[in-house]
Amino acid sequence: MATNFKPALIVVDLQEDFCPPNGSLAVANGRDIIPTINTLLSLPFALKIATKDWHPADHISFASNHAGKKPFTDFTTIINPTNAAETYETRLWPVHCIQNTAGAELLPELDISKIDKVVEKGTVKEVEMYSAFYDPCTAIDSAKEGFKTVVVAEGTRGVDQPVTTWDKVKEELEGKGVDVVSMEGEEVAKVRNA
Ligand SMILES: [Zn+2]
């Protein structure tokens, strides 16, 4: 084994608004992954980070901030504030994860004492920010930055289902150099034994 093996864990957006029973953008069975995440948090990762979607009330990703537009089905164009030539289309959502509201809280079942650092994202009104690095997707950006990156399948639920199926997401991740692994796989075992 390489002596410089230094695994980090990023727990992405395990917040009330993304989970039943009260989330405004609840992912079906979102709370089911908590035991998996707590197991991962108990392993000897060198660094454990949790991200929080953390929006101002006038955030660009909320359909209610665009006259006549509906959440889930409508899109808006986002312009890079530092480079107006760079634009991309992003889906619009119901209002969610407003800074300092109950919906933006991390799930209380999470073993928060094990988390070293919380990273807030989506804090700028004009920009959508799905990723802990930049956008649009944390795992893909991590691979792009040169980190060997894996997504633990049991610890993942998709906000876009059934529009985007898990198989499609997996294909995209793997196409960008991110491995999708299981809790039983050798990657997690390697951390267990680190
Ligand atoms: Zn958001």
From TrEMBL:
Organism: Hyphodiscus hymeniophilus
Domain Isochorismatase-like: residue ranges: 8-153
Family per record: Belongs to the isochorismatase family.
Keyword Metal-binding on entry: yes
Record-given protein name: nicotinamidase
EC number(s) from the headed UniProt entry: 3.5.1.19
GO biological process: pyridine nucleotide biosynthetic process
GO terms assigned for molecular function: metal ion binding; nicotinamidase activity
Keyword match Mitochondrion: no
Taxonomy of the source species: Eukaryota, Fungi, Dikarya, Ascomycota, Pezizomycotina
UniProt keywords, alphabetically: Hydrolase, Metal-binding, Pyridine nucleotide biosynthesis
Pathway: Cofactor biosynthesis; nicotinate biosynthesis; nicotinate from nicotinamide: step 1/1
